[in-house]
């Protein structure tokens, strides 16, 4: 039988006259053109397997079009082909280019899609900008009987045991748009030049950007869990996107950073950093560091310190309680099995100090520190003390995975983690701010991500001074930014107003560095918390700038009341 390669070009409308386009490379009857009859599922109305697959990819492109304003064309070539059984899909960029006239940074590699956007034209007319390959060896195939089983719905309601193809394709498109580091296993940049993504990598341990590290430092840094993303907008967005955890252990001297999931026993790690010296427990019975016997021989020395304990044959709760009774302020339990994470839990939780579980390698690294070294613990939003989110740095360098994803410990799961989690929504999340920082024009970001300086970049006609009044309406630049009003529109909006008997004011949902406080007074002299004795700092996120109101109607208050709104900046530096 003679097979023909089928090329079908689909044009998908883009912004500013540019387009996403799809070119399917599969042969007739296979991959994106598979003819098996299927039942519509999860909003996907395709009636053949190939049609459902195409509709999923077209939906992924449509989602990206909601956020990206294209100034140049992006062609995506797509196919199904054989990949390793543990690989769901991969993406390859069509070309890299540096030192072109429109490049934001010199001596920096940019992926083809971003080159076209920055240039405003197709610089690669004879090729696609992104090649996506999806694994054809799905579950039940002879090559991979336990391979991926794809869910073709468009509703993110992924059944257990299946992989959401929509999330997979969103993920791979993001790699093609530039969410990719081209640093190699020795920590060296491609041909001696950093790429646009890697310029934002920061080493928490060395307290320096990737660009500032020497060759020897990069070789070591590529394998340790201390690399983060330092883009300012992403740092502002992280607390609004990520939940508390994972826990971050950092030695005060900067010698070591350990990233570990929170334990299910003990109390939550305090929001303020906890700082204390560490000590290995000694229970006097081999193995003496597993805390399975009591009393500890070094119980007196443990008081006021962090107890480092090895996993053993007794329950985690018993270990932690013995350390707590000896006066430990926190407990770290290290696994005794190589290359496996340690999830610390128990049937009951009588422990009243924080507990953390680490890998065997992390435990060994802690033991290698100078005796008495102080550890600084922080409970962040998946990021460092400076709110820089952690990148994926497995102990063994993995091409196309190391550095090119978020750390898998992120909570909730993010689109650009190394593997697609069933709990991850088909939403680009922090990927949006990353792409914006690299040079893409990104719109409709649905969470706070701006500070005043970044807002000024979007309002170039405004004087830079926060107190300036560009449109002469009596509202300062900073107030315009904080309220989400336009700096060049002469429409004065009061900081507080009344609507339907409630106190109302306007918020800018994009501001990531603004806090609000509303107070009341009866004489303009003494000010107190507004209504019910609760001072409220607002950080809610909305799709559009919104009006915030308090449920208690003003009309129910006795006598005359004055209200004032205080706005303050709360930046990163």
Distance N terminus to C terminus?
Answer: 67 Å
Helix content: 10-25%
What is the total number of structural domains? 3
Largest beta sheet: what is the strand line-up? 15-14-20-16-17-18-19
Shape: globular
Structural class: alpha/beta
Name the beta content range: 15-25%
Count of helices?
11
Low-confidence stretches: 1-16, 531-555
Give the C-alpha Rg: 27 Å
Report a brief summary of the structure:
The chain has 573 residues and is α/β, with parallel strands linked by helices.
Please, could you describe this protein's structure?
The chain has 573 residues and is α/β, with parallel strands linked by helices. It has three domains: 8-178, no CATH class; 247-379, Glucose Oxidase, domain 1, CATH 3.50.30; 450-573, no CATH class. It has helices at residues 49-67, 112-119, 165-177, 215-221, 232-241, 299-302, 316-325, 360-367, 431-438, 452-458, 477-483; strands at residues 8-13, 19-24, 74-81, 89-93, 96-97, 108-111, 130-135, 150-151, 163-164, 194-195, 201-203, 208-209, 227-229, 247-251, 257-260, 274-280, 306-310, 330-334, 355-358, 374-379, 497-499, 502-506, 514-521, 528-529, 547-549, 562-569. It starts with 7 loop residues before the first strand and ends with a strand. Helix 5 (232-241) packs antiparallel against helix 9 (431-438). Helix content is 18%, strand content 20%. InterPro entries: PA_dom_sf, PA_domain. This is PA domain-containing protein. Residues 288-366 form the PA domain.
